Amino acid sequence: MPDVRLASPQGKWILLTTVLGSSMALLDSTVVNVALPRIGRDLDADLAALQWTVNAYMVTLAGLILLGGALGDRFGRRRVFVVGVVWFAVASLLCGIAPNAEVLIAARALQGVGGALLTPGSLALIQASFHPDDRGRAVGLWSGFGGIGAAVGPFVGGWLVDGPGWRWVFLLNVPLAALCVPVALRHVPESGDGRAHGRFDVLGAVLGAVALALVTYGLIAAGEDGAVAVISAAAGVAAAVAFVVVERRRAEPMMPLELFASRQFTAVNLVTLCVYAALGGFFFLAALQLQVVVGYSALAAGTALLPTTVLMLLLSARSGELADRVGPRLPLTVGPLLCAAGMLLMLRVGPGASYPADVLPALLVLGLGMVTLVAPLTATVLGSVDVARAGLASGINNAAARAAGLVAVAALPLLAGMGEEAYREPAAFDTAFGRAMVWCAGALVVGAVVAAAVVRRPPPGCKRPECLRHGGVTAPPLEGEPVRKRLS
């Protein structure tokens, strides 16, 4: 049984280590969007390259995050966490010195691999190290400090872009890792799952990542070469079918398909796909809209987007308490509708837009919608499966959200009619941005309809969320016990 007390010096070092590790990934997921216009100008990159700057990271992260949790259970959570931090830092260094867009995109893909190793490990280390009486408070502090890191990310990113330059958005991870690794090696106890056995489902993980990459490539390439786009998308669908076949036949699959026999689990994941597709597309395009069309600096754009994260950090716990009383269906219906209203309010954000009159109201409504839905969504995912599989269910839900976001970043410019040079043409980008917001609002309405029609209150005694304060905007928090599936 873990016995480290939170008040002890070792407990404080463990908390610091996990906060530093998770903050690296959270910072990266929020600050890169703010840097995109400057990256495009400095590297002479078109819109497709900017899409891949975001999506190369998301493809490997979404495809491998379940594998990362399983590797920690098998080979030691501290060991895999440290490997992930070092990997992430090295990839960040490569991003920071990238001479062109192609190298940057490749380094971003490597960064996603590191993120898949360290993201599940940070919470797993807390669960495996702290005394049961202190674990809830430790998780609360971890999620709270992580949320603060996510909240300051756009501000710090904007300041770096306008000051030392966009490369420091990535280089900042190197000193964070240099602090995190020695503390982890010295103060964090090693832990693992002694029941882990068998071979890893590497084939399933690779097929999942390849399917995402090919579909994404097809969507991004559709505006340039229709034949290549169709072939790529078809190959991606074939890889996805192969992934399902492999997972169905494995004795120990990475993603057990029988979980989707639960109508509730399937419905909540459909809501997740709709919500996080819209949010992923929004935060990618909004940072560009504020800089390209409204004329904000990177610092101003990053600061402008803070209200959504701050509201989530301050109010998520109360939203979870409300959902416990009224059940998840109402919040999961109202939350997406509020988000949709916020995105439609963004239609007022154009040339000469006023922040207090135009931008802030949209972001406040969007933030309230996110507050309303995130905690109930996580609770419903955990409550729709057996307690023993709560961690796995949370991991699948988190991966689904990231996959939805990357597909949205690939598809929205195509659906909205953005050309390759759109982000260099304010008038054209503004028109396409308006179309994209309508698409995002439509996806959120679909999610609300699914929730209203299918989601019901989980049974009494189901597992409840531990990460009550969540500041991330790209995916719901990972929850529950570490993923223990043995991948073959």
Automatic annotation (TrEMBL):
Membrane topology summary: Multi-pass membrane protein
Transmembrane segments: 12-36, 48-68, 80-99, 105-126, 138-160, 166-188, 200-220, 226-246, 267-288, 294-317, 329-347, 359-387, 399-416, 436-455
Signal peptide feature range: none
PROSITE patterns given in the database record: MFS (PS50850)
Keywords: Antibiotic resistance, Cell membrane, Membrane, Transmembrane, Transmembrane helix, Transport
Entries under Gene3D superfamilies matching the protein: MFS general substrate transporter like domains, Multidrug resistance protein D
Full protein name: MFS transporter
Main location: membrane
Pfam families tied to this protein: MFS_1
Locations listed in the record: Cell membrane
Native source species: Streptomyces dubilierae
Keyword match Transmembrane: yes
InterPro entries: EmrB-like (IPR004638), MFS (IPR011701), MFS_dom (IPR020846), MFS_trans_sf (IPR036259)
Record-annotated Major facilitator superfamily (MFS) profile domain positions: 14-459
UniProt superkingdom: Bacteria
